[in-house]
Amino acid sequence: MNTTTATSATDAMIEFRQVGKSFDGQAVVDDLSLTVAPGEFVVLIGRSGSGKSTTLKMVNRLVEHDRGRLLFAGQEIRTFKPEDLRRRMGYAIQSTGLFPHWTVERNIACVPELLKWPAARIRDRVTALLELLQLPPDLYRGRYPHQLSGGQQQRVGVARALAADPDVLLMDEPFGALDPITREALQQEMARIHRLSGKTIVLVTHDLDEALRLGTRIVLLDHGRIVQTGTPRQLLVEPASDFVRDFIGRGDIGLRLLALDTVASRMRVGSVAARSSAVSPLRDTDSLREALSALVTAGVPDLPVVDATGAPCGQIHLSDLVQVQGAA
Predict the structure, then answer these.
(1) Least confident among 191-195, 238-242, 278-282, 287-291
(2) In Å, what is the CA distance from 221 to each residue of 25, 52, 134, 181, 279?
(3) Confidence tier at 236 by pLDDT (50, 70, 90)
(4) Whole-angstrom Cα distance, residue 175 to residue 155?
(5) pLDDT grade, residue 8 (50/70/90)?
(6) Tens-digit pLDDT profile for residues 42-82
(7) Is the pLDDT confidence value at 6 over 90?
(8) How far is the C-alpha of 209 from the C-alpha of 42, rounded, in Å?
C-alpha cells in the first residue's frame, strides 16, 4: 500500500516526513509521510476525527507539528515566520471569514495591501479574480458580505485566498455549509480554476463525491494514518482494504466510476437532430453519471449531445454507459 507519491523530495511543494501531532497525549496525526507535487489537487478525506483538518492546518502552522519534518518548497516550515508562510498560502474555510464591514473589493485586497502592492495592481487583481469567479466586478466590488448569497460569499472567500497569487491554496471544508446546487456549482468553479491556474491545492472534505470530482489525487485517512492514496479511479477499482471498500460504498462503485468521465469521452460523434423539443440535450461536458440519470428520467435509449456553443455534436446511448460500467 502506497503512502507517498513517486514525486521526488526536490520536486515536492509540500512534504510530510513521519509527521505526528498529539493533543492531550492522544495522537491525532501519526507517522504521516506524504508529498504534494506542484500543480496537484490533493483531497484529504476521512471520517470525523481522522486527522484531515489537523494535517491541513499544520501546513500553514495554524497547528504546530510535534514530530517529524514538514517541508514547504524544500524548507522546514519552522524556518519561516508564520506570517511570511501564510502570505505564500491562500486559506479558504467553510465560514469564509469575510470582514463584514469591508466591501468585497477590500476583503479581496487585504493581503496584497499587507504586501504593499501598488493600488493599480491591486485593483486589477480584484477585477481579474471577480471575473474568474464569475462575479461581474462592476456589480460586486462595492457590495458588502451581508448583501451576498452564501455561494457568492464563498466565491469571494476563494478570491481572497487567491489574491496574492499564493504558491498553495489550502481549503478546509470550503463548501460544507452550502445547499447542494450551489455546492456543485462551486465545485465546478474550483475544477475550472485549477485547470486555468495550475495552482497546488490541498482540500479537506468529508464528502466522497466531492473528493472524486475535484481531486487529481485522494488521500484517505483513518486515526491519523494514511489508509490509501491514489487517483480517484485507483481508489474505486483498486481499494487497498475492506475499510476502503466500505468507505467508498460497495454498491456505489459503478455509479461513481461513471461520474469520473464526461459525455464527450463516450458519445457517438456526429451532428444529430434533437429527438424532441421536450427532451433537453446533454452537454459534452456532463458526466456519464449525469447522462445516465437524464436517459432514465426521459425514458429513452439515447439523447443528443451539444457542445459549449449549443451546436449538436453527437449522441450518447444507454448501451454505451452499461458497457462502460461493466468494463470498469
Answers:
(1) 278-282
(2) 20, 7, 34, 27, 43
(3) very high
(4) 10
(5) very low
(6) 999 999 999 999 999 999 999 999 999 999 999 999 999 99
(7) no
(8) 14
Q: What is the mean pLDDT of residues 280-299?
A: 89
Which three three-digit cell numbers place residue 262? 464526461
All three cell numbers of 179: 445547499
Q: Grid coordinates in use for 63?
A: 497547528
| Alpha helix (H) residue ranges in the chain | 52-59, 82-87, 104-114, 119-132, 137-140, 150-162, 180-197, 208-214, 232-237, 242-248, 253-258, 288-298, 318-327
Cα separation, 165 vs 112, whole angstroms: 9
Give CA–CA dist 68/37, Å, rounded.
19
109: pLDDT strictly greater than 90:
yes
State the Cα–Cα distance between residues 144 and 324, nearest whole angstrom: 48
In 10 A of CB 168, how many CB atoms? 21
Strand order in the sheet with 282-283: 268-269, 312-317, 302-306, 282-283
Cell numbers representing residue 295 in the block: 436517459
Around Cβ 302, how many Cβ atoms within 10 Å? 17
* DSSP β-bridge partners for residue 36: 14
What Cα–Cα distance (Å) separates residue 148 from each residue in 144, 145, 180?
7, 5, 18
